[in-house]
Design goal:
By secondary structure, the chain is mainly alpha-helical. The chain has 3 helices and no strands.
């Protein structure tokens, strides 16, 4: 089970210290902003609808190298 908590900054350290004492709880920090997650999901959905828009990675690198003389 995954639970998301919203804890006041002033109480966070105390709460984390307590939670870390519990052997059945693991903590994973998620520093990814929701707007970033939303953007990636939107781009993936667009790619699924229009796979022809995808650009090959090697072609992309070649274009960048050509453009910037690398």
């Amino acid at each position: 089970m995954k639970i998301t908590l919203d804890i006041k900054e002033s109480r966070l350290n105390t709460f984390l210290a307590f939670i870390k004492t519990l052997d059945y709880v693991s903590i994973t920090e998620n520093n990814i902003h929701q707007w970033q997650i939303d953007e990636v999901e939107s781009r993936l959905a667009d790619l699924e609808k229009h796979p022809e828009k995808a650009i090959d990675f090697d072609q992309t690198i070649a274009r960048i190298e050509e453009k910037y003389g690398l």
